[in-house]
Design goal:
The protein has 300 residues and is mainly alpha-helical. The chain folds into 3 domains: 138 residues, Orthogonal Bundle (Lysozyme); 64 residues, no CATH class; 43 residues, LysM domain (Membrane-bound Lytic Murein Transglycosylase D, Chain A). It has a 3-stranded antiparallel sheet.
Length: 300
């Protein structure tokens, strides 16, 4: 149900964004500020497309109160480390403190530093400078916005307005060595969710089974067993990683599942928090066979 709600939000927003292809305010904003975004990418390795999409979304293409009155294009609040000028505006709560800038350039630069100085965003800087999708989902995962469709909105804006054309594949600034990824991932605290009563986390691009196991005081082999993968299987970003054993059947809310293209018995079991072996047994399917597209599987 959650996936359906997210998909509906995405479809609704896509329709909204696509209706704005000729929106003069969006096109004017892009023409006016794309060079600032490109400069920030060169200096800080944040995709220019992501910067522009966030600017468009957070400032309503430069028409919002905060961008008009305070040059605040990214909705950044004061927080404890801000010593500059401020402005007050009703957001999640009444009369909240937001940062005030002297220019849009100052806002763009502060946005980059805001991301670079906070450890929860560190894993994003391991992505390719053109991976706007990874950045979009990563920003949502790291807590930049509470809107569950935030990542999809950024991606929709980028692809509707072809903002990816501003991303630069080759940057002079050196990337952090691959050997440092595990060290950085140790600082990322994973939020624990529950599916079918089983706790799990969502893997970020720099996660491994090893570092997640260590975070939750588990042996890596045990974590892999919980997720029914062998020692050679690599962790894929944004996958569910269960940190306790899965159940023998799905919750009462999910009695059946219709198999879709690209799904496997294992991926379906992961989706519903049940053991793959039990899924085979519930449906009397030989272990040598897989699920067929369109097949209705019992989940309990």
């Amino acid at each position: 149900m959650k996936k359906i709600k997210w998909l509906l939000s995405f479809i609704l927003f896509c329709g909204f964004a696509n209706s704005q292809v000729q929106n003069k305010a969006y096109l004017t904003y892009i023409e006016k500020y794309h060079s600032l975004a490109e400069k920030q990418q060169k200096l800080h390795r944040i995709p220019a497309s992501i910067i522009l999409a966030q600017g468009l979304l957070e400032s309503s293409a430069g028409q919002s109160y905060l961008s008009q009155r305070a040059n605040n294009h990214f909705g950044i609040k004061c927080n404890n480390d801000w010593t500059g000028e401020t402005i007050y505006w009703d957001d999640d709560e009444k009369n909240e403190c937001f940062r005030r800038y002297k220019s849009a350039l100052e806002s763009y630069e502060d946005h980059s530093l805001f991301l670079k100085k906070r450890q929860r965003y560190a894993f994003l800087f391991q992505l390719e400078p053109t991976d706007y999708q990874g950045w979009a989902f990563g920003l949502k995962k790291a807590g930049y916005a509470t809107d569950p469709a935030y990542a999809y909105k950024l991606i929709s804006i980028i692809e509707t307005y072809n903002l990816q054309k501003f991303d630069k594949a080759e940057l002079k600034e050196a990337t952090i060595a691959t050997s440092d990824i595990y060290r950085l991932s140790a600082y990322i605290s994973h939020k624990v969710f529950k599916n079918n009563g089983v706790p799990y986390v969502v893997a970020t691009p720099c996660d491994t089974y090893e570092n997640i196991a260590e975070e939750f005081s588990l042996e890596e082999e045990r974590l892999r067993n919980y997720n029914e993968v062998d020692a050679e299987t690599e962790l894929i970003a944004w996958e569910k990683v269960y940190i306790r054993p899965k159940k023998n059947k799905a919750s009462k809310n999910h009695p059946i599942h219709v198999v879709q293209e690209g799904e496997s018995m294992h991926s379906i079991a992961q989706e519903y928090g049940i053991k793959t072996e039990k899924l085979y047994q519930l449906n009397n399917i030989p272990y040598t066979e897989g699920a067929r597209v369109g097949q209705v599987l019992k989940l309990r």
